[in-house]
Write a sequence for this structure.
């Protein structure tokens, strides 16, 4: 019995590793075919526009609320630190840099992931367990191109716009709190904000958000497309999609930031 236990542990570990490798291969194959489906005809513009409305317009309110209160909260917290050194004029530039470079793309993506990624996984998962995807295949319609490609393309296109909206309302939030609530001198506040924040900071964050949007949509569609086990399986696929995409966003953000950091230093 004592000899079997280590063997069982090794088998379990090997099975877990093989499962991760298998999932990654399945995800890579699925996303590659979906991206190819975006580029090749037939081009389903009606489905693309429908998904752009779903991802962009219907997510705008939650993104604006999140952006405004994120900027306001960081203004209050930054005032505690900068006030000790008599540098309250740096509140605006510091918070807006944090919003445009990191908080904007990451928080926007996480909010959209909770709403859009889960919806995509649930919708495709329901179609899978009710055999609607099998019906598309029987009609010689590529289900990945028909279902996943418009969703991934729409999310990639709309995420930079949502990120820009997040940055804008976040900057307004920190400006209002700093100048009206905390009574920071508006002159140095806005001068330093304009001096330190460059368009490259904004564009860099928007490019990040497009990458994160790809992660949200592709993971959600992939999990839903391969759902099985009825209603319980759809729920599990939705949960796994939201968790996996959220973790992937944070991990990928670190590596993208490490790559982009030397470019920012060289620019300065």
């Amino acid at each position: 019995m004592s000899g079997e236990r280590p063997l069982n542990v090794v088998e379990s570990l090997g099975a877990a590793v093989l499962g991760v490798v298998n999932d990654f291969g399945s995800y890579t194959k699925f996303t590659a075919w979906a991206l190819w489906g975006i580029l090749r005809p037939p081009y389903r513009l009606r489905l693309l526009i429908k998904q752009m409305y779903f991802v962009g317009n219907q997510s705008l309110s939650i993104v604006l609320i999140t952006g405004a209160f994120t900027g306001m909260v960081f203004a209050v917290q930054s005032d505690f630190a900068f006030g000790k050194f008599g540098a309250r004029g740096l509140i605006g530039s510091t918070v807006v840099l944090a919003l445009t470079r990191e908080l904007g793309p990451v928080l926007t993506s996480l909010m959209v992931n909770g709403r859009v990624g889960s919806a995509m996984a649930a919708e495709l998962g329901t179609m899978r367990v009710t055999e609607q995807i099998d019906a598309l295949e029987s009609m010689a319609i590529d289900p990945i191109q028909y279902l996943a490609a418009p969703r991934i393309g729409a999310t990639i296109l709309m995420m930079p716009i949502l990120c820009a909206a997040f940055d804008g309302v976040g900057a307004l939030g920190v400006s209002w709190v700093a100048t009206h609530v905390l009574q920071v001198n508006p002159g140095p506040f806005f001068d330093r904000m304009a001096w330190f924040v460059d368009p490259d900071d904004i564009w860099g964050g928007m490019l990040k958000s497009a990458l994160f949007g790809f992660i949200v949509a592709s993971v959600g569609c992939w999990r839903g497309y391969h759902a099985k086990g009825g209603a319980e399986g759809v729920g599990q696929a939705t949960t796994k999609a939201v968790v996996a995409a959220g973790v992937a966003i944070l991990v990928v953000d670190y590596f993208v930031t490490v790559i982009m950091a030397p470019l920012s230093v060289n620019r300065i």
Summary: Residues 123 and 224 are 7 Å apart (CA to CA).
